[in-house]
Amino acid sequence: MIADFAQVHGGKLFVSGGAINLLAPLRPEAPFAVNFAVALSITIPWQATNQMHRLAVSISDTDGELVPMGDELPPGAAAEDRGKFLAEFNMGRSPIMVPGEESVLPVAIPLLGLPLPHPGSYQVIAELDGSEEARRTVRLLDPNSQGRWGQGF
User: Fold this and answer.
1) How far apart are CA 55 and CA 13, in angstroms?
2) Selecting from 3.30.70.330, 3.30.460.10, 1.10.260.40, 2.60.40.2550, what CATH number does the domain 2-145 have?
């Protein structure tokens, strides 16, 4: 889910202004800085607990150009992961779980002041263990075609 704000607290995902698909830039000139959050609820089946998993979240424009969310690569990451949000995790089995029960991992990725190069559509893609699990489209509004700046929604 794309949201205005998201955070995880006490094992719960808190979302404000969720399920949005339009972004307004913070300023009317490029690069167009935006604030939003990616909110994920990852479900891990019983048989996939107690093993390592890899989450990768990326943002790209309609031409497939990656929008970097950062420059640093964690140790052992591949060069093609540059600019993506990466996380490795191991979801253990709680002693109170019953056989066959799933585990849920809430994830919030705040993106504050993320510079987008141009107005238009962008894909936010979440991959788990190398498989695409979710894709959401957001559109950055063109501040120059809305009439007066800050209005037009």
Assistant:
1) 17
2) 2.60.40.2550
